[in-house]
Amino acid sequence: MSTPSPQAMVIQRGDYRAPSYQIPEIILDLRLDPENTEVLAHLHFRRVAASPVAELPLNGEALELLSLQRDDQVLAEHEYRLTEDGLVLLNPPETFVLKTKVRLHPAANTALSGLYHAGGQFLTQCEAEGFRRITYMLDRPDCLARFTVTLHAPQKHCPVLLANGNCMAMGREAEGWHWARWEDPFPKPTYLFAMVAGDLAVVRDRYRTASGRDVALEIYVAERDTAACVQAMDSLKRAMRWDEEVYGREYDLDRYMIVATDSFNMGAMENKGLNIFNAKYVLASPETATDSDYQGIESVIAHEYFHNWTGNRVTLRDWFQLSLKEGLTVFRDQEFSADQNSRGVQRIGDVRRLRAAQFPEDAGPLAHPVRPEAYSEINNFYTATVYEKGAELIRMIHTLLGKTQFRQGMDLYFQRHDGHAVTIEDFLAAMEAANQRDLSGFRRWYSQAGTPVLRASGSYDPVQHSYTLTLHQETPATPGQSTKEPVPIPVRMALLNTQGQRAPLSGAIEGPDGEAVLLLEQREQSWTFVNLPDPVIPSLLRGFSAPVRLESAWDDEACGFLACYDDDPFNRWESIQNLAVKALLAAVADSSVTPLPAVLRDATASILRDDALDPAFRAELLTLPSEDYIGEQMSVVAVEAIHRARDTLRQDIGARFAEKWMALYHDLAAPYQRDGLAIGRRRLRNLALSHLIASDGDSREAMALHARQQYAQADNMTDRLAAFQLLVQHPHHDAKDILLDFYRKWHGYPLVIDKWFSIQAATPRPETLHQVEHLLVHPAFDWRVPNRVRAVLGGFAANPTVFHAADGSGYAFYAEQIRRLDDINPQTAARLATPLSRWRRYDAQRQQAMRAALTMLADKAKLSRDLAEVIQRSLP
Ligand code: PHE
Ligand code: ZN
Fold first, then answer.
1. Distance of CA 200 to the CA centre of its chain
2. If both were cysteines, with which of 109, 129, 856, 865 could 116 make a disulfide (CB 3.0 to 4.6 Å apart)?
3. Tens-digit pLDDT profile for residues 774-793
4. Strand pairing of 453-461 and 549-552?
């Protein structure tokens, strides 16, 4: 396989050209063998360009060409040319059938892109550009083809043969082989093609659509996992119902299949009628999966299902439009989860993820607009910006238009574009046309990178009985974009009087919930609210109505007030987070300052007292901001000081309220249940345990005993893992026996063993680096399994004091592993390398060490295009 030179090709959005040919029909025949698979393809070409073309390039990568015919004639030498990245047909006729035969090596395909053989199964992954590793083709999303696929394999190893659509026929053939033919009636781009062959058990269910059609639901897993598909199947049915109820969208095939695998680069893939999933997002039982694992399954199952309309029926013209399907589908899955669970808690979690991944991305060298302008490797653009910020943009449109109008826009979008490959512009145009609205200013959100800073200040006029609010916005420069225009920012808000009640919003247009949505379009605007006999405190950006950094001029007292009285759950959480961040930053700057000042103490006390509050929400309110988030608020991340300050705060809150935590720990104990209330109670109880163990008082030893007991006796993985993690990561606890015990119990469950690996890699102790070196040679470690690699390396990179050790040892070690991984799985290597891109955020010594690590990688021989692009953008 030839590696294109790193800077070889940069694809520009503006260079898009419609294809000169379409291939409305493709017939594939695969003889599956782990070492040597043969793929026969019949491609029916039809010219769509007005005039003949001299060259028609087809994509092809890592293929061994065995034969090549056009309309049953072997192609002569002057009729084609083989290149580094494919096959060029010379002076092709207007219509023709191309027949190719190629050979591939699925077992050697550790990149997990294209057709690969892993864990005894054949699987495909074609998004974004994997199909070209299966056969020569126009591998681009604006070429829609009807697929007929025949699979041949040995019956013994591969009793199950699956592809998109409907199974039309099956049969036996010589030497114990068998075959199956599948037809997908819906034309689709190559990236949605999939096939699976292996020895899989199936869990079946049925779904009746709103219009009364019956759909067979099938989840394919290893025989021993059939009992662990309850949550997946249930989530699927709920997602199908939700899309009918909320968007009027039904499923369109007779069969919906999901296949789980341990060998997958991402979360899951929405292939038409045949989703392929990372097992992490399918398998769950109370003994092996935590509450958050269950929630992950619910949202990813829904996400892939929702793609059937947003992504598959209406697909992408080109990869610059990626957020058209991903931002929209993330928004849809977030809303689905909000409707299934607590909306406020869901929103807090979504924003927490946005801030943990997207804000740093937007503030660093890898920043890019939601609709990028250029890429060299598209796999590097499956980012938090395209997904999570993209979802926030859709949410803002939803806020600006209103629910009913948004739905009208969606209806028109589907009506106009069903069966087509379209652009973000087409989506916005449908939203505008359905509602006679002008979203021209809003388009800037798609083209401009960087997180806007929103500054708010206000003053009460006791004579006029009015309150004037001033909002100001500014977006910092990002690579390639030095000047920024203002963007339209919807600011949901309310006013609270000093008793904590809503005050009238006369002077602004009131929304349905007695809130207003202010639209800040200029750099700075002011609003005056009248008829206010008493001073008020504004609750701004409720529900986090825009992906911005809000800097408000409110003092601690106002923040403390909002932490107790704000009736918007997100904002209440935000206020107490702000108090904690402020206290922590003060303690970081001066270690003699207590991180638990009176306002924070009082706010914490009032939440701890409030037993009527939803326990999940209460746990959110009481969870301290992460070290990374605190670091994000500093100009230079003070790695150790942040760790110390946060530990001290946890300890102080633990000690100060020990009695209350103890009471919670005991009162919240309950036999395992799966409902939202039970989940919240577990979360709060385990938070109590962590504070008690952190506390310096007498309770610590007693609590360590409780933790051991909880670890040993838990009837579910949430509680067991919480205790396990506390014990393993406890600075004064010898974890050897508990590590052994856990491994012995769970070694047969890869997803549980991933947790075992990642908790060790994330342990904030100096000896962790050494231990991680051992983990990499552990018999259960496997460089070819992304979940395992991510558990160790991802866990390590999320371990601030160890990864960012001042002597640079963490970086050097890490880069060495990325280098190794790049030869095996470039996509995963490139993704894991991104923490190194943030070097500008650290002190001079660390900067130097991080850059040295990146430089070492840049000098690697046979550097993949994926990793090369990340490094090149990180090290200008
Ligand atoms: N399209 C998938 C999703 O978000 C993600 C994915 C991208 C999976 C690329 C595999 C490869 O649902
Ligand atoms: Zn998606």
1. 27
2. 109
3. 999 999 999 999 999 999 99
4. parallel
